[in-house]
Specification:
By secondary structure, the protein is low in regular secondary structure. It has one helix and no strands. The protein is rod-shaped.
Amino acid sequence: MQQWNCHHSMAQPVVCPTQYRCHDQFIPREVPFIHPIVNVNRQNIVEIPRHYYTETTRNVMGETVQARPGYGPQTGGFGPQFGPRGNRRFR
């Protein structure tokens, strides 16, 4: 009670813990990101069929046909398939 007698009108200050106010500033700084790109030119083979035909000729014996009388090279006639001028006549 003696303390009250000396400082009865003055209260003792209470000191609180220090508070910090941060004023953040942001400064941009570039950081390089390297992205390697490889361009690849591919040549793809597409197989397309191309047909080749070989051609041969064979001579084979046919039927033996008997000549009719009055027709043929010995008789002077042209035969039934040709007219008097030697042109082929279609029926």
